[in-house]
Structure formats: C-alpha cells, structure tokens
Amino acid sequence: QNKVQLKGCDLLTLKNFTGEEIKYMLWLSADLKFRIKQKGEYLPFIARKSLGMIFEKKIPEQIVYRTGKSTAKFTLCGGFVCLTTTKKKNHFLLGHVLSSMTDAVLARVYKQSDLDTLAKEASIPIINGLSDLYHPIQILADYLTLQEHYSSLKGLTLSWIGDGNNILHSIMMSAAKFGMHLQAATPKGYEPDPSVTKLAEQYAKENGTKLLLTNDPLEAAHGGNVLITDTWISMGQEEEKKKRLQAFQGYQVTMKTAKVAASDWTFLHCLPRKPEEVDDEVFYSPRSLVFPEAENRKWTIMAVMVSLLTDYSPQLQKPKF
Description:
Layout: H1 19-38, E1 50-55, H2 61-76, E2 80-85, H3 91-101, E3 104-108, H4 112-121, E4 126-130, H5 136-150, E5 157-161, H6 166-172, E6 181-185, H7 194-207, E7 211-214, H8 217-221, E8 226-229, H9 241-247, H10 255-259, E9 266-269, H11 280-283, H12 290-309
Parallel strand pairs: 1-2, 1-3, 3-4, 5-6, 5-8, 6-7, 8-9
Helix pairs in contact: 1-5, 1-12, 2-12, 3-4, 5-12
Keywords: Amino-acid biosynthesis, Arginine biosynthesis, Transferase, Urea cycle
Enzyme class: transferase
Family: Belongs to the aspartate/ornithine carbamoyltransferase superfamily. OTCase family.
C-alpha cells in the first residue's frame, strides 16, 4: 500500500485531490473512529498543536452545533482550539498573523476567492469549513457514512434533489473519482455553477460514470441508491425565502420520491433539516442515515486535521472503496 502524503496541504476543495487522496482521508477517518470509539485509545497525534477558527458569517446556534461538535475532537488528540469572528476581510493580514499563532486554520467564509487568498498568504494548512462554492468536509462525512452502510462506494448512484449549492458542488468534484454516478435535480435558475459542471462532466468522462443534471426531482431519484438534499435557504439567503420556497415546490423528498429509487435506497441530509425539504416519514425512517452522518462529521474533520498536520499511517485495514 503506497502511503499518501498530505502533511502541509490545504483543504480548499476536493477538486484539488485525487481519488486516492480522498480515499486516504476516509481510511484515516475509519481508523480513528475504530481506535478511539471502539477501542478507547488515547491518540495524542496533535499534542500541543493549535487550530484557529474563522467565522466570517454570523454564528447562529446551528453553527455552534455543527462546527463545534466536529472540531471538539481536535482536543481529544491533544490539540486546542481558538475561535475568532471577522467582518473585515483582510485575508492578507489574517494569513500572516494566524500562521505565526496557530498550526492550522478552519474558516467558514462567504467567498471561495477569499479562502484562496487566505491560503495563498498563510504558511500553515487552511481548511475550508464552508464557502459559497464548496463544502468539502461535509462530503467526507457523507462518504464515510455510505462506506459504512454499503461497504463500497463504487457503482453507487447519488440522487441530489435540491439547490445547486456548495454541497452539490463538492459532490460533483469527487463522486466520479470513486466510480459513483450522480443524478441531480435543481429548480430552474438554481442549477450548479457552470464552471463546476464543466469540470464534473470531465471527471465523469475520465472515470466512466454517469452525470445527469435535470429540473425533474423524480428523474434524478430514479434508480438512485442515495437520496440527498440540503437546506433550501442557506445563511445569507433569508431575504430570498419566499421566492425560494415557491421555486422549490415539488422538491420535498417523500416516500413517493423513494418509490422510484433503488430497492436499497438510503437518505442523507447534513442538518439542520426543515420539513419542507424532507417529510418525517423519510427523515425518521430506518433508511435515513442522517444521525450516523452527523456523528461522522467529527471523525472526518479529525482525520483531515491529523492528515494535514502529521505523518500518521492508519492501522486499520484499508476499506474496499
């Protein structure tokens, strides 16, 4: 098994990583979950390391809920976390200052370009906690959840039903690298970014996978192994709420949606969920993997930090992706 070396890298988008490198992060996630959760080991891989966290957006309860629980595991490996918020976007100064004070930075920002600038000016690993264009750490948690459930990712068909947002973009930048097919339905006017689509088409061609983009939710769900949706109204889009709710009529994931999916269908949602996005029957069904998915955020973000800051090699046997 050839060792993948990610120490010192940034995680800005999965576009920058090969399939083997993403698989390595998932393998490391499974390894840490097994050693810490199942075996009860204490693994101070990042002792005396510090993580800076930047929130350019306001910090509502859901951010504390989502990001706080994910980064809490950083301390379990011996590190410590410092938190800051910023409204003034001077990423040149931030990059230099934080490089002298912390060992890595996780940032949730509005613009991907600001994150790119931060990474360019910093001399430490920068992790994309969320931007307008990508949300890579969420997709790693999704893939680990599917790996655990299906034992292999290759050949799965992912059915996205919702907004053409940062999570869909991250799936588009990575699914084909695992041999997964993607069928995505978005309302007219809410399609994924054209530059992301162009690259996703290239990945699908290179890996022999199917990429379907449609405005019909049932067409996207047809034969899908995994039904996936997300919030229709992200932070910063509150003023668009009425318009978006009208545009997304018919996009709620229900058992009617599941009827056209594959017989082994499952459901993912990165939370917090609203009833108009998915009804209770699907959300709380035995097919719903949302709670394992939520837990796996902490194992995958922990693996990202360990992989970017250390030379650790997983001890657990490599999964069959």
